[in-house]
Amino acid sequence: VDADAYLADHAARVDRFLDERLPPASEPPEALHAAMRHLIFPGGKRLRPALAFAGCEAVGRVATTAALPAAAAVELIHTYSLVHDDLPCMDDDAVRRGRPTVHVAFGEAVAVLAGDALQAEAFALLAAPGPLPVPDGVVLAASRDLAAAAGSRGLVGGQADDLACAEGSEDAAGVESIHRRKTAALIAAAVVLGARFGGADAGAVAQLGRFGRRIGLAFQIADDLLDRDTDGASSYVRVRGEERSRARAEELLGEALAEIDGWGERAEPLRELARFAVRRNQ
Ligand code: GRG
Q1: Mean pLDDT, residues 11-28
Q2: What does the CA dihedral 252, 257, 197, 76 come to, rounded to 10 degrees?
Q3: What pLDDT is stored for residue 167 in this prediction?
Q4: Could you tell me if the CB of 85 is within 6 A of ligand 1?
Q5: CA 262 to ligand 1 center in whole angstroms
Q6: Average pLDDT over residues 191-214
Q7: What's residue 229's pLDDT?
Q8: For labeling, which of 29, 103, 155, 232 is most exposed (least CB within 10 Å)?
């Protein structure tokens, strides 16, 4: 399995599904619906949806089509967080995914509302009937996991602490704590939700949760190494230096892969995506 090919194939699948399910830009309120779609299409790497499909595949019980709602829901939460992170009151960015940010294109108020609506839409899509039947209990557990990853003990809490330490006063443990919540929680949720939609039992969910949290943290350290956010308060590279950051990312990758050692061929996409997340250059 080649990570680039897997990402491209599964991006196309989740994009089709999102395009079908999201309100069309022609539906009133048009500006809001256009703003919601602005950062969704064209997307980024679609790593989180790919991880959801790979989590489903690793469990190996059902066709990965079953995981479409999980893959789409996680990408919607991710995209909403980018829309809000780019706002003038947060990172104040004018460009995202190579295009004007949502607030630049549609104004600040519409960007806030588009983010809000994308977040709600994530849960609506997760709970709506998907292409294949999924037990209600699976949807309930997945909703709980996604809400936890997105909430004040996950993504939003990590963002809050990141903003609070804007002077860069954090030590390595503090930076890791922020990274675990701001980035790793949602990446782990992607794997876990995909696995749940694939019929994973409690043991597999726990293992893939540990796998996903390590990959998520390593992904963020790799992001710090790519140096996109040099002044970032919570840069691992700033507190640890480049060499130790690389070593930490590799250590986490090793721990993650050990977690799914013995899962066989079906977990190969998950392994390839893990290596990609840590060693990527994009
Ligand atoms: C505003 C609630 C709220 C949270 C913001 C996502 C985020 C938290 C901030 C964006 C800045 C940043 C560096 C976040 C860390 C996560 C991260 C590396 C996001 C970028 O993910 P990619 O590389 O992006 O997967 P694409 O565009 O490929 O989807």
Answers
A1: 98
A2: 40
A3: 65
A4: yes
A5: 32
A6: 98
A7: 57
A8: 29
Cβ 181 under 6 angstroms from ligand 1: no
Question: Residue 48 Cα, ligand 1 centroid: separation in angstroms?
Answer: 11
Pocket test residue of 75, 119, 219, 223 for ligand 1, highest count of atoms within 8 A of CB: 223
Q: How many angstroms is it from 83 CA to the middle of ligand 1?
A: 9
Task: Give the tens place of pLDDT for each residue, 66-118.
Answer: 999 999 999 999 999 999 999 999 999 999 999 999 999 999 999 999 999 99
Rounded Cα distance, 262 and 27, in Å: 49
| pLDDT value of position 170 | 67
pTM for this prediction:
0.96
Count Cβ atoms within 10 A of the Cβ of residue 142 and give its class: 0-12 exposed, 13-18 middle, 19 or more buried. Answer: buried
- Whether cis (ω within 30° of 0) applies to the bond prior to 29 is yes
DSSP state, residue 24? P
223 lines ligand 1 (CB under 6 A): yes
Which residues does 189 contact at the CB level (< 8 Å), separation at least 6?
A: 74, 145, 146, 148, 149, 150, 212
Residue 116 Cα to ligand 1 midpoint, Å, equals 16
| Omega prior to 135 cis, within 30 of 0 | no
User: 178-191, pLDDT tens digit by residue?
Assistant: 999 999 999 999 99
Ligand 1 neighbour 47 (Cβ under 6 A): yes
- CA-nearest residue, atom 26 of ligand 1: 44
Q: Which atom of ligand 1 lies at the shortest distance from residue 220's CA?
A: 18
Q: What residues form DSSP beta bridges with 96?
A: 99
- What is the residue-averaged pLDDT of the chain? 95
